[in-house]
Amino acid sequence: MASLYTAPDGHCRCAWVAGVEAFLPYHDTEWGYPVSDDIRLFEKLCLESFQSGLSWRTILAKRENFRAAFDGFDFNKIAAYGDDDVARLLADAGIVRHRGKINAVINNAARAQELVAEAGSIAAFVWSFEPAPEELAEPQTQSTSPASIALSKALKKRGWKFVGPTTVYAFMQAMGLINDHATGCVMRARAEEMRADFTRPAMKE
């Protein structure tokens, strides 16, 4: 069973919240709640790719800088980025200045446009990989899953970059495709309620 952290309000949270002030509001108001907005989904995939080799604490602290630098993660705008934009981003000390990851965001923006044309929305595509309840492991006991491996392969097949199974699993946790709040976490029931009320987006026929 995943360990827990007792927050200042006396309620238990997932253990990863401990010691980082910014993690508590993120955990309580965002993490694990289902998302169908394509911009938010694209942003999260991008930020998870930037996190590779770093801590989420670093990325969360820079999230507003990333949003400003990447036009709010509007993939229709990012897909048109050129060499001047790459140079601008590499000079921006407010973000993670990694050429490969910056180029991956621009590439993935064009792939996102193609995915919308194919499936109707990014949301419809990624939610088609939501695992069945019987496929789920105990909360926070793994870093990949059959569903994250399958979604990673599907994205890579379509030309996406920096979307390995671990990155995709973290994305699925955060965007509510699974409820991975620890057993005993005060937000687990809330996440489950939101998932129950959530209308899954349908793929384009």
Automatic annotation (TrEMBL):
It comes from the Bacteria. Zn(2+) binds at C14, H27, H181, C185. Pfam families: Adenine_glyco. Its EC number is 3.2.2.20. GO terms for biological process: base-excision repair. It is an enzyme of class 3 (hydrolase). GO terms for molecular function: DNA-3-methyladenine glycosylase activity; metal ion binding. The keyword Translocase does not apply. Keywords: Glycosidase, Hydrolase, Metal-binding, Zinc. This is DNA-3-methyladenine glycosylase 1. It comes from Thalassovita mediterranea.
